[in-house]
Amino acid sequence: MADIRVAVAGAGGRMGRTLVGAVHRAEGMVVSAATEQADSGLIGLDAGEVAGVGKLGAALRPDLDEVLGEFDVLIDFTTPDATMHNLALCRDARCRMVIGTTGLSPGQREAVSEAAIDIALVYAPNMSVGVNLCFKLLAMAAEVMGDDVDIEIIEAHHRHKVDAPSGTALRMGEVIADTLGRKLDDVAVFGRHGHTGPRERQTIGFETIRAGDTVGEHSVWFAADGERVEISHRASNRMTFARGAVRAAQWIAGQERGQFDMQDVLGLREL
Ligand SMILES: NC(=O)C1=CN([C@@H]2O[C@H](COP(=O)(O)OP(=O)(O)OC[C@H]3O[C@@H](n4cnc5c(N)ncnc54)[C@H](OP(=O)(O)O)[C@@H]3O)[C@@H](O)[C@H]2O)C=CC1
Ligand SMILES: O=C(O)C1=N[C@H](C(=O)O)C[C@H](O)C1
Q1: pLDDT confidence of residue 175
Q2: Active-site residue among 24, 55, 160, 161?
Q3: Does residue 14 have its Cβ closer than 6 Å to ligand 1?
Q4: pLDDT digits over 13-46, tens only?
Q5: pLDDT reported for residue 1
Q6: Under 8 Å CB-to-CB from 95, ≥6 apart: which residues?
């Protein structure tokens, strides 16, 4: 079987460089194209050299439309606007996508779902196996502990992160709210300050820490009187996300159309 040709969007970024390395090392896959922001000083450089894995023959281009036809799957960990631009191009060209970008607005999430009418894509705020296992554990904890506990989601990331709470924390909130029959938009409380009054049991709280080079940490408290369950995940390097994205790219190459997430890729949906 021919190698899967992968394009990496934002290949000069923290995740982009890690993804180039992960795809390069993966069996049956090649980095065939790469993009960066149009005014980036990296334009024209080789994606492999930027990622520190040696020359790969894929120069960083300023727009995905220049490399349409040169890839089978696009892996996109960039910004919401860049992802929307690439989504439209991939939809028109019928190319598959793996989207890791977080901070999408409700309208942008809707656009992802609409594009999946025509193309196959994986869209997930966290591609690590551990976090996706945690989503299952959270549903189980919410089911068992139900309305008798206070639920708080605490996340910490590096100082460069631009969206808050993290996409993972929001997805954790959605999983818990869905399990409890609550609507996250109605019960979410984002940080607290001043005279807040006592806590309302139905709320789900979000606390955000941005500090140093923290890769990504999430902890969910189910707190009752007399005991507390904590479900926590700590990523210590970005390769854990990149390896998940590579698995997603391999998996989505076998799909024709539809929106999927890492629960599908990892076979966790029916567990
Ligand atoms: N789903 C998951 O498992 C994970 C998701 N993420 C998410 O991935 C995203 C990226 O994170 P991170 O790598 O840390 O961020 P970075 O800012 O390091 O990387 C984003 C890259 O995209 C580039 N970029 C911006 N606009 C365009 C464009 N129009 N075309 C091509 N490239 C563009 C940026 O260039 P410039 O710097 O010049 O603006 C930058 O190099 C975030 O949303 C983050 O939350 C992160 C880790 C795991
Ligand atoms: O920006 C990051 O770094 C990360 N973003 C993702 C998120 O917002 O959930 C996933 C991971 O925690 C790292």
Answers
A1: 98
A2: 161
A3: yes
A4: 999 999 999 999 999 999 999 999 999 999 999 9
A5: 81
A6: 68, 71, 72, 73, 74, 89, 119
Query: For residue 169, what are the CA distances in angstroms to 155, 173, 233?
Result: 7, 6, 11
Residue 270 predicted with pLDDT over 90: no
Look at residues 22, 19, 23 and name the one whose alpha carbon lies nearest to residue 10: 19
8 A C-beta contact, residue 64 and residue 9: yes
What letter does residue 57 receive in the DSSP assignment?
S
What's the token pair of residue 127? 């591609």
Asked about 161 being catalytic, the answer comes back as yes
pLDDT tens per residue across span 203-214: 999 999 999 999
The set of protein residues with a Cβ atom below 6 angstroms from ligand 2 is 102, 125-126, 157, 161, 166-168, 216
Q: Classify 46 as helix, strand or coil.
A: strand
Tell whether 168 is in a known binding site. yes
Enter the pTM of the model: 0.98
Residue with tokens 């019928």: 94
Q: For residue 101, which atom of ligand 1 is closest to its CA?
A: 43
248 lines ligand 1 (CB under 6 A): no
Give the DSSP H or E segment for 210. strand 204-210
Q: Provide the token pair at 73.
A: 């799957």
